[in-house]
Amino acid sequence: MMIPNWGLKRKFITVFVVLITLPTVFGFIIYYQTSVALKDQAKEDIIGNLEKNEQNLSAIIEEVTNMTAYMTYDKEFRTFFMTPEAETHQLAYKNAVDGINGYFTFQMISKPYVSSVLLEAEDGTILDLGEPILNGEKELAKAAIQKSGAPLWSDAYHVTSEWEGEKEVISVSRAINDLNQINNRIGMVRIRLDHEKLYRSIESQDSSTKWSYFVLSNEGSVVLHSDPSLVGKQYPETELATWVTKGKASSYRLETKDSNYLVVKKELQGTNWYSVAMVDEGEVVQELYHVRNSIRNMIILLILLGAVAFVGFYRSNIRRIIELTKQTWQVSNGDFTASVDVQSRDEIGILGMHFNKMVKTIQNHINVEYRLKIKQKDSELKALQSQIDPHFLYNTLDMIRWTARLENAYETSRLIERLSSIFRMKLNNGKPWVQLKEEINYIKNYLELQQSRLGDRLQFYINVQDDVKDNYVLKQLLQPLVENSIKHGFKDLPRQGIIRIHGYRSYNSLYINVIDNGWGFTNPEKIGIHGYALRNLQERLELVFGKAATLEKTNLTQGASIQIVLPLIDMERVKNIQRELGE
């Protein structure tokens, strides 16, 4: 049966007969199958979404717990906790505090649900980061001490913030012990998580089924819920709370006066909490009614459309559609002389006019782009002819470097070697892509040259994870940001300028943060200067990656932070991008 080869007339008649004789049978079959599928899907959705939320929350708990464990081993944190109050004026202590501030600034930027952090040394020295909290939390401190260095996750509780007023938070507290004398406590840390932001971070709504998600403690109090008024209180449905805290089955059917609910739960490891998800079975049934009505309306509509199509449009439109199809095939085969004879101004006639206009536009674009490429190649040729031979430049710098070494000017030799490396990177054989480790090496050479010029007025730290160093980035991605920090962010700065560069992987993206302690973006003149560099960099990223790359700037208490997010790129992906851009 060669249905694809039938003529339009035969197809119209066949479709019309099918729409008249079979729609009711098909409708009942579809309705029955949809009913069964929706019921099964509702149950699968709620279980799947519960697992996703539980995984999201468990990942956050693990990340924040690891942050507290990190403080036991990190030198800067141990310096803060173990330095007596009388020695807090020393440079080592101040550098440690600066490092801690930078660490938690990065954490709060990358994890919006982290609200504030409290560090308290045994001698009473306190470092409060993030939004200030007015309430006392002595009971949490006592309970954490009794845990002997193990993390203590609290239930949700009420605090008063100087920034946001009344709010609910969840916190983890931990006694920090001496690394060398594990039973000797040297301080206390408490990390508070904003309830609403934490809930938004973990909630998953990937299905069409309406469901609710919340977290209860083992005492039945609400830890996380979409309704903030319930947080910190006993869950109002006593029967459900009792099943969550004491029931052994993983699913439960709750019957109330208004409706029946399907409920599932899962215990969160490392806490005394339970993840709970529930769906109203009545809403699932209501969805089935909507499906049934939609199918009935669809059948009626199809019958009407079939009759109209058969009676009203066959004679007057099929021939023009065939002609338009024929001309479209010509265009798809590269023949841009195709044209449709427009005899009326109805929809098909307008389509024909737009088709003719489109073909002419494509032809014009081809001609224009061809001429532009010729001009571009001519400009590139002239630019190449006017450049100094790179090999001559490298050999000359190398000769100067060895002359300096023979004259025992080792520092001069080292600086010339770094300058030569920078020139090589800038040229890079005309290639716009480099591996991240090459870009970092280039920035390191650049900063060391600047450090030689500025002396103690400049310090920098570079921390890039090994698993992202082989990924490719645009050449000179970071240099405009670092240069702006030195030229404008540190100009007339009454303290040592510090630049921190962090590179790491999160999911399938590369994150690069450039943080300085300069003037920030508060000065209108500096905003214009920074904005020009950022705008140029943003345009480069949009041209290559589109919406897959982002650039965000943030003002800090001291200085500014710029975060670049890029897709992870290997050499095969670089070649694909270059083909797409016509490079």
Automatic annotation (TrEMBL):
The keyword RNA-binding does not apply. It comes from the Bacteria. InterPro entries: Bact_2-comp_sensor_kinase, HAMP_dom, HATPase_C_sf, Sig_transdc_His_kin_internal. It comes from Virgibacillus massiliensis. It is a multi-pass membrane protein. This is Sensor histidine kinase YehU. SMART domains: HAMP (SM00304). One of its GO terms (molecular function) is phosphorelay sensor kinase activity. It is found in: Cell membrane. The gene is yehU. Keywords: Cell membrane, Kinase, Membrane, Phosphoprotein, Transferase, Transmembrane, Transmembrane helix. GO terms for cellular component: plasma membrane.
